[in-house]
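Case study B.
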Amino acid sequence: MPTSRSIYNKRRRPMDVAAHILIYLSAFVSILLLAGIVGYVAYRGSTAVSLQFLTTVPSMIRGTFGIAGNIVNTLYMIVLTLLIAVPFGVGAAIYLNEYARPGRFVRLIEFTTETLAGLPSITFGLFGYVFFGITFKLGYSILTGALTLSLMVLPLITRNTQEALKTVPAGYRNGALGIGATKWYMIRTILLPSAIPGIITGIILAIGRIVGESAALLFTAGSGFLLPKLGQYGEGLLQKVMQPGGTLTIQLFLSMENAQYEEAFGIALVLLVIIFCINRLTKYLSKKFDVSKY
Amino acid sequence: MNKGSYSIFEGYHAKKTVEKIAAMSFTFCAFIAVLAVFSITVYMLISGTPAIFEVGMKDILFGTVWMPNAAEPKFGILYVILTSIVGTMLAILIGVPIGLLTAVFLAETAPKPLAKLVRPAVELLAGIPSVIYGLLGILILNPVIYKLEIAVYRNSPKHQFTGGSNLISAVLVLAIMILPTVINISETALRSVPAQYKQAALALGATHIQTIFKVLLPSAKSGIMTAIILGVGRAIGEAMAISLVAGNSANQPLPFHSVRFLTTAVVSEMSYAADTHKRVLFTIGMVLFAFIMLINLLLSKVMKGEKRDANIKKHL
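Model:
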């Protein structure tokens, strides 16, 4: 038997060595790039972030810059979008998982949900501008932006809720129906409470998406940066919803366009910190509520 | 029966009505997605087609001169369309091999502690807002590309210098942006290849590299195709990140030309456009929408293949 065929005689194949090198090189490039991005933003942003930066609005008189208004706008956007998207998303997931029978209708729903998930944000931006801004006459406002964003995060919430509902054991459902509960009662008291962890994961992922969105908001929510007035009974807080409001990402884009790079990096650092916290929170919650561990 | 107990026989009609209302509400919720896609399609068509009739389909789609503010405005978006196609393809050509090999690294050849550190980092990076990539592009990438441009075109007087904002910068930014997506999905696809494939290949005497390239990667093909198509979708739809690094003229998509993508054209001009100009911008949005729908259809065909493969693998 020729010894070169023996698997104990390992010969070095040049292709293998080359492939190994390429793999390590690619990984090195990727890791370097991605680490460099975070590092550079942190480095340049740390000089801009200060208490004044975080808690004031831009003032022409004093010549200062602050992103408090943008932070408040982002919070408004998150809350409003979730208020719209979560009921519809959870409802859709319940329908798909509990009520639907396999057929053309269900396939249509799943296809359109997947399509919504794949549309680029600028398409949503254009649609929101024309549909909510012009046809519904909402103009540039946080409400327009929230309606547009809720369409974007709808697939996310539906998908996560579906996954959560699937993990509820069939025994729960059958047991409840077997002792005489009606379907809606069963969903309300047994399914939804068990599925809450998955729903919360979906909500947090949606928050991450909302915070990072910019193209969809440029033509819908505008770029206002003032804090809401409180009014007599706090109704100023509600009025804010109908006014234009620039979120953190929009302000970042505008600062970039005006070549105010110092401030832009400050906003970028704040955004990175928020995204990091959301990511950690998601990981922690999904580990904590991991049903499969029992 | 006490007042507080729940009888399964009492209140039948009330319960039936509540049930019916609940079922109808849930059906309506599910239908919202269908309504949304339908409305988006309709509105894209409504806003996009008037300009086609005003300016003429051949002039818009196949014209090459974009001068909306001239005395005789011209709205040719052929170069813009070509730029989006060429730019996306180049970004894929650069980003996918690096992303795929990195996924191979994470799934196969990395030492476990390193992989444990890097994987969450890549997942985190998939969530970074796109404007941050644009910020870094304009501050770090543009000067470098400008130096390159000066070096390449030093002796050519005809070349219009772009200051670093050109197709190359945009393509590089896009390639970096799709890296996390490609890495994450490809790695998941590689890890879901049944262990028997790898064990069989190694048992037959193949080296690790041979196993990876001849057994694992082909088995994960549909997952990798999904990653690529999602990367394409992300690249072709990206607007904010490249709007400041791509330059602002509708030129041919050559490396050192200041170019415009379908997306950046819309973003940069929407704020001050009027009348016909604005309507043409909506036409651009419609063309983009058509591209995305095509890509999505392609994706659903590939996913069907993946379901078929997954079903086959389950029987092994």
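Residues 14-45 of chain A form the longest helix (32 residues). The remaining cases will be described in the next quarterly update.
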